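Backbone-to-sequence.
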C-alpha cells in the first residue's frame, strides 16, 4: 500500500493543485550540478542551497520567456528523515528567488518563502521538492506578476536529477549530495480545470496528505 501511495504522489508531483494552473516553468542552463545538500556536524539537519545558478524561464504567465536569469534557494530540514517503504521523506523550510541579477538583485521575476516536503527513492538519483498551499506554507511575490495572479491555491515544485551520490540518509537526516534542477510554480490565476482533471489532482493532494500524516504520526 505504501509503495502504491508513493507512486501516486510522485506521478502527480508536478501537477497544479485543484483550482490552480501553472504560471511558471524554469530550469538550470548549466550541464553541471548546481543544487547542493549539506549536513551539519551532528548529522541532524540538511541544508539545500542553490547559489546564483544560471536559469532559463521557459514560461511566465502572460509574459515572454526569459533567458540568462538567476535562481537562488536556501532551505533547511525541520524534522527527521522518515522511511516510507523504499523512499525517504523530509520536510524543509526556506526561501527561493528567480531574479534578473545575482543574489536576488534586479527584477524579482518570482520569489517565495515556503515549508515543503522532499521525497524520493532511497538509492535513486532523483528527488522531488513539493510545496502545495494549502496545506503547506507558500507565499509568492513578483515584480512582474501582480499579487492577484499569485493567490492560493499555489504550488512550487523542484525536480532534482543526477543526484551524486545517490539519495541516502545519514544520522537522522538526508545525506549530502549535489544535483541538477528544474521547476514549476502554479496559482489560482487561471480557469478551474475540467471536472475529470480536478478529480485526478484531488487524488494526488489526498495521497500526499495521507503520506505526510502517516510519516509524521509514526
Amino acid at each position: 500500500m505504501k509503495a502504491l501511495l508513493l507512486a501516486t504522489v510522485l506521478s502527480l508531483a508536478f501537477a497544479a493543485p485543484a483550482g490552480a494552473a501553472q504560471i511558471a516553468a524554469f530550469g538550470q542552463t548549466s550541464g553541471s550540478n548546481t543544487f547542493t545538500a549539506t549536513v551539519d556536524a551532528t548529522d541532524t539537519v540538511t541544508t539545500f542551497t542553490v547559489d546564483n545558478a544560471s536559469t532559463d524561464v521557459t514560461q511566465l504567465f502572460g509574459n515572454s520567456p526569459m533567458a540568462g536569469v538567476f535562481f537562488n534557494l536556501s532551505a533547511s530540514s525541520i524534522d527527521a528523515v522518515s522511511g516510507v517503504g523504499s523512499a525517504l521523506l523530509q520536510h524543509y523550510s526556506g526561501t527561493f528567488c528567480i531574479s534578473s541579477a545575482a543574489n536576488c538583485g534586479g527584477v524579482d521575476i518570482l520569489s517565495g518563502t515556503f515549508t515543503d516536503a522532499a521525497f524520493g527513492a532511497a538509492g535513486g538519483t532523483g528527488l522531488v521538492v513539493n510545496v502545495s498551499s494549502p496545506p503547506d506554507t507558500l507565499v509568492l511575490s513578483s515584480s512582474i506578476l501582480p499579487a492577484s495572479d499569485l493567490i492560493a491555491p499555489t504550488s512550487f515544485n523542484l525536480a532534482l536529477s543526477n543526484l551524486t551520490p545517490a539519495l541516502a540518509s545519514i544520522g537522522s537526516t538526508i545525506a549530502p549530495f549535489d544535483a541538477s534542477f528544474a521547476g514549476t510554480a502554479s496559482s489560482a490565476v487561471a480557469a478551474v480545470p475540467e471536472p475529470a482533471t480536478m478529480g485526478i489532482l484531488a487524488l494526488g493532494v489526498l495521497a500526499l496528505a495521507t503520506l505526510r500524516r502517516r510519516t509524521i504520526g509514526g
